[in-house]
Write a structure and sequence with these properties.
2 domains, globular, 50% helix, 4-stranded antiparallel sheet, alpha+beta, single chain, 10 helices, TerB-like
């Protein structure tokens, strides 16, 4: 008899935390619900024992945007300050996304046309910052992770964004893993390094691949701001 065990991350609602009513900066009228990611020990792929908490964050019950817990402080600021915070968070998200996708695409030494298209599609999703993102793309394409630049972008994202937003970055970056029809070992190892850099357990690698097979990538772009 084979016994299959491991760990996986699951999202839970924090029942004793107050809901922030009509407070979502993205859709303006959604309620922000406190959530946490917890790692579970699994037996035959069934979660049986809760382990450590990976992160706590707020998620909008309407548009599904996710925010780290400092959103409570941000919401006390003026509307102009809130808008500026959202703008900066979106830029941090987009730079980390493009940098990781580009780095992933060149790690195996074969920059496929399919991978280039995925990156260009991602950049087109942020038309107001296209120039900045193209600069990030070209720099990483030419210099790879020189001076740790890709991981610096991910570290900025880790400090500014929620774990849900980080997972969305990596899930979209994982599209590159599948763009040419095969996942190379170098790509898999790099994705696990990205997870660790984002403060997430490397065991969540399979969760990312599962998410790609279960959802259209456009859905993953929801909730990316904080």
């Amino acid at each position: 008899m084979f016994v299959i065990f491991g760990t996986r991350g699951l999202k839970h609602t924090v029942s004793d935390s107050p809901v922030l009513t009509n407070s979502c900066p993205n859709c303006n009228n959604g309620n922000l619900v406190n959530k946490l990611y917890r790692r579970w020990f699994t037996l035959f792929f069934i979660p049986v024992i809760p382990l450590d908490t990976v992160d706590r964050f707020y998620e909008c019950d309407s548009c599904k945007s996710a925010y780290n817990e400092n959103i409570k402080t941000i919401l006390q600021k003026s509307q102009d300050e809130i808008n500026e915070n959202q703008k900066q968070a979106k830029l941090i998200f987009a730079k980390a996304l493009v940098a990781s996708m580009t780095h992933m695409s060149i790690i195996d030494g074969d920059f496929a046309a399919e991978e280039e298209r995925e990156i260009m599609d991602a950049i087109e999703g942020f038309p107001e910052m296209k120039e900045d993102l193209m600069a990030v793309h070209h720099h990483v394409k030419e210099h790879a992770n020189k001076d740790n630049q890709v991981f610096n972008y991910l570290n900025d994202a880790r400090n500014a964004l929620s774990s849900e937003a980080l997972i969305n970055i990596l899930a979209q970056a994982a599209v590159v893993l599948l763009a040419d029809g095969a996942i190379e070992k170098e790509e898999e190892n790099l994705m696990k390094e990205y997870l660790i850099a984002c403060g997430l357990p490397k065991e969540m690698y399979q969760n990312l691949i599962d998410r790609l097979t279960q959802k259209d990538i456009s859905e993953l772009k929801e909730g990316q701001l904080n």
